[in-house]
Amino acid sequence: RSAVMSAILAALLLTGLIVVEMTGILIPPSPHGMDPGAGPLAPGFVMVVLCVYLGIFAFIMVTQTQLAETLRRAENMAEKRAHQYESLSRMRRDFLHVALHDVASPMATAELLMRNLHDELCGPLEPRQKEQLQRAMQRVAGMRHLVRDLQILGELETTDLREHSIEIPLAFLLTTVMDEHADAAKAKGLTLEVEPAEHAAIVFGVPRLLQESLTNYVDNAIKYTPAGGRVAARVRPGEAPATFRVEVSDTGVGIASEDQARLFQEFTRLGRGHPAVKGVPGTGLGLSIVRRIVESHGGRVGVESELGNGSTFWLELPACTGKE
Description:
The chain has helices at residues 2-22, 43-118, 127-158, 161-164, 170-180, 182-188, 207-223, 257-260, 286-296, and strands spanning 166-169, 191-194, 202-205, 230-237, 243-250, 300-305, 311-318. By secondary structure, it is of the alpha+beta class. It has 2 domains: 1-158; 162-318, Heat Shock Protein 90 (2-Layer Sandwich), CATH 3.30.565.
């Protein structure tokens, strides 16, 4: 409509200008040094000029109208696709939630029954039977880790971080995670240490998600550190201004420098051929989940490692300012 009105207005203005010039009401200006002449404008010339300009106006009007219509169709299509995507995304989340819930329960039951068999609660087993049962238990444990990782990914998509975030003392959260892993470290003959924090490191976030990030770091450090090794954790000021850093160090197998950039990508597991890594369950999702959790809280992650000399995994989070 605006294009049509603009074209009509331009045509009326041009026609009016020609009429007032032909009737002598308005004398058209001429370039300096040129004589406009005393004769009237030829009607044929006037009609040609008028038709040319009216044709130009009509062309512009049609072009603008078509362009506006194309943009409207594209906008409607984009809005329709956005609604379809949101609907499919919601269906996928709902299906994943139900499927994971339905899988987790029988998997836990199967794992419990296999452990009872392995512990010979139902009668003695031959060495070969026990070996096969142990391999089956490792497979089920791997599936359990995968289900847990997928549940966390689903929670990241559906959780309103700002609504569920509170002030969290990082040192307390780290100590809680380390205490939960004390038995696992002791069973493997590892020394577990938490260095005292020198600062009241308070951050703003979802406690369960941040605890899951630290749990992943500590769990990996224990899994990939040979017996007799050491796992240490600390909280200190971050390298970026107004941030706090949590570091988890181990004396494990270490990571080659060329592999470190891929560590926080999905489905990445490195060093499978190393004796300390062989048989360790994992999905390759853990560190990518840590990255997504920390980045959703405005932080960043990283690793410092040397092959054969252990690793230090760290995460940095913005300090709580009290204005969140």
